[in-house]
Amino acid sequence: MVNQTNTRCDLMLFGALGDLAQRKLFPALYQLERANLLADGSRILAIARSEAGTDEVRNKLLEKLRQHVKPAEFDENIANDFLQRVDYLCLDFADQEGYQVLNEWRDAVNNELIVYMATPPSMYGVIARNMKSSQCCNEHTRVVVEKPIGHDLESSKVINDELGEVYNENQLFRIDHYLGKETVQNLIALRFANNLFASQWDQNHISHVEISVAESVGIEGRWGYFDKAGQIRDMVQNHLLQLLCLIAMDPPADLSADSIRDEKVKVLKALKRITPNMMETHVVRGQYTAGTIMGKPVPGYLEEDGANRGSETETFVALKVEIDNWRWSGVPFYLRTGKRLPEKMSQIIIHFKPAPHYIFDSDQKHLANNKLIIRLQPDEGMALKILTKDQGLDKGMRLRQGPLELTFSETFESDRIPDAYERLLWEVMKGNQYLFVRRDEVEYAWRWVDQVIQNWHDSDEPPKRYASGTWGPVASIAMITRDGRSWYEDA
Ligand SMILES: NC(=O)C1=CN([C@@H]2O[C@H](COP(=O)(O)OP(=O)(O)OC[C@H]3O[C@@H](n4cnc5c(N)ncnc54)[C@H](OP(=O)(O)O)[C@@H]3O)[C@@H](O)[C@H]2O)C=CC1
Ligand SMILES: O=C1O[C@H](COP(=O)(O)O)[C@@H](O)[C@H](O)[C@H]1O
Questions:
Q1: Glucose-6-phosphate dehydrogenase NAD-binding domain location, by residue (predicted)?
Q2: Which CATH architecture has domain 179-417+438-481?
Q3: How many helices (H) and strands (E) does the chain have?
Q4: From the CA of 235, which ligand is nearest?
């Protein structure tokens, strides 16, 4: 395979021994090596707090790669070649003087510099300042930061200000890993490469939209982080609102980062405020109790390791979101996301309005709506549910609904679907910002989410319990049923 950039990069990875780095980032970098996308001479400096030598860290990383790369994609020789690029530096990120070693490592090498902060967000400002005062970075350095940026609008502004004191916006690559998923990028292709949909994509033709991001896992040992965040900060503020933006935005003038981000921001600005008296009909929050997932018993949220038994943090959220603009007036977007649901499944359903005048037997009217089902994960693909005549002499003009089906793995057999982090790291190396989130997007998303959280605090109502292995509190079903609709289930 061809090396597509030939750009030599030095990647400084802060937090290199943390969960994200070991589980996602190193496996993604390994895959770039396997695809021959890392230029010869590109290097990685793994930086973390543990005392260790480079050889010891390389061995540890090899172990982790064996664990986290699919066996069919793991090649010991490629892994060893890849690890030759890695050096290790033990550094307390707050130790300003220690940053001199970064310059020594850079030495006279002229590679482009990427700094990846896979650390708690409270460290972003510290690292940025220390990099600057030690002259380890310049106006060409690209800086990758992880979500969440803060826990509300105010704290996100502080973090963004700290980063902004050292770096320009065009140097900052804020990760929302959903934007790195192939199927999420495909939303842009689907909407703007197919005129068929472009002309149908508004309140004249669409009755409502569903966005479901279901996880079967719980909090995976991350109580300390998750209990302060909850599902609304962990998933809605970023991933679900980004999906909503990609579905709802107007066509961008081109594929440049700012054209796309400008359109997403317009959607975020137009989100209708959820006032306290709308909470009952527009918002459901839940917390899982013990139950069974795929035949296995699992503990409730309050029985997880490290749990504080009195916690009222939500692990499930359902929302009815309205967009106050010309295109989407009167079209609700129903969002739901939760942990310990029956299966891992992310999908978007576009429900089209029925034909304006109905000429078939009225007992079939419930079949009348076309639906576009976009499966983000797993079983990536899409299906357009259309109505056809039921075949047979005895059927008359009876209708039935069937799918025009596109399953990516079957239709495009040879394509391996890369992990989101592979795509995102690759785009950083090329300097493309279009899959990363601009400061104003983060802040408008917080502004909207903050008012929902504030309403929760004011009402003092605890989250509704749901058994693990179910689709969340029954109130989430009631929320959509009240509007004469239901969450889509494939029959
Ligand atoms: N893990 C995940 O799946 C996801 C993580 N993220 C985000 O990615 C970032 C990293 O998360 P994650 O990997 O889970 O976190 P971890 O706590 O596992 O890793 C953070 C790393 O940073 C190190 N660190 C923290 N403070 C210092 C310091 N002062 N000096 C040196 N090292 C320090 C920690 O070292 P030590 O171990 O010694 O404390 C640890 O190795 C966070 O912002 C998180 O929100 C986002 C999406 C998913
Ligand atoms: O950002 C996060 O995402 C994961 C879900 O990501 P996915 O790619 O597996 O769908 C979630 O489990 C985690 O809590 C959250 O921080």
A1: 13-186
A2: 2-Layer Sandwich (3.30)
A3: 17, 17
A4: 2
